[in-house]
Design a protein that fits this description.
Layout: H1 14-31, H2 35-57, H3 63-94, H4 97-102, H5 104-118, H6 125-137, H7 139-145, H8 150-179, H9 184-209, H10 213-216, H11 220-232, H12 239-261
Helix pairs in contact: 1-6, 1-7, 1-8, 1-12, 2-3, 2-7, 5-6, 6-8, 7-8, 8-9, 8-11, 8-12, 9-11, 11-12
Length: 262
């Protein structure tokens, strides 16, 4: 009989790759690449990749996956910690004091997220939104280590957090409606309403506050995609189409942030 292939220990959620990569790429594009930023980026990537083996070990992928891949998952987790922890510590040592303080922001968010992972509640609405915010915040110390101001770094991270959160809420609403879950009723209204609100606030921020206008409206591409798909209410089998639309909008968000903030 052919040998059954072991399950992959890479993150399964395709959207998570965008949530992890776009903020880091933004940080590096705004601040440049140096020893501290490179090491901190390696540490963030290691933590991101450690999520899947950790989830397997706590039973988050089911008892069968835990039985069949626990040894492999434990080994992978050890290697990632062995790479990520020294990289993060050395990166913080080489970084400026403001960057070290900025690292407390994603660290605090990660501390809030960890209990949800171990309690297998990461896939709740609260868990998924906290993941989106935490991954967005990882760019803050990386950007500050690259001599980007803390205010600009937080502003860029906030844009990504809003964009990813809107996508998350819209996807959850689409799935809830298809499965006729209890949250389907409010999701039908809340997701488009939040997207429309984000667009209105972005325009108001650009006009009234007078901040860099391109950066202020950076969230609009993703908000528009979320608004359209939230109103149309596509079938879950078409979520891949929405996913690629969100990726395209993320590219537009990235371009707006770089042009507006750099």
């Amino acid at each position: 009989m052919p040998r059954r292939q072991s399950p992959s220990l890479l993150p399964r959620e395709h959207g998570a790759y965008a949530q992890a990569s776009f903020p880091l790429i933004t940080a590096l594009a705004l601040g440049g690449l140096g020893p501290a930023t490179l090491l901190l980026t390696i540490a963030v990537i290691a933590v991101f990749l450690a999520h899947e083996p950790a989830l397997v070990l706590v039973g988050g992928r089911g008892g069968r996956a835990k039985r069949e891949t626990s040894t492999h998952a434990r080994r992978r987790l050890v290697w990632l910690v062995a790479v990520g922890l020294p990289a993060g510590l050395l990166g913080l040592c080489l970084a400026s004091p403001p960057a070290r303080l900025a690292a407390l922001i994603p660290a605090a968010l990660g501390a809030l997220l960890a209990p949800l992972i171990f309690a297998r509640r990461e896939k709740t609405a609260t868990g998924e939104l906290l993941v989106a915010v935490t991954l967005s915040a990882t760019m803050i110390p990386v950007a500050v280590a690259g001599d980007v101001s803390l205010a600009v770094s937080i502003a860029a991270a906030a844009v990504w957090a809003v964009a990813f959160s809107l996508g998350t809420i819209t996807v959850r609403g689409i799935i809830a409606r298809a499965k006729k879950k209890a949250e389907a009723g409010w999701a039908r209204v809340v997701a488009p309403a939040l997207s429309a609100t984000a667009i209105g606030l972005a325009v108001a921020l650009a006009v009234v506050v007078g901040s860099p206008r391109i950066a202020a409206v950076a969230v609009i591409p993703t908000a528009l995609v979320s608004l359209v798909f939230g109103l149309v209410g596509i079938h879950p089998r078409n979520l891949r189409r929405m996913g690629w639309s969100l990726v395209a909008s993320n590219v537009a968000v990235f371009a707006a942030l770089i042009v507006g903030l750099k």
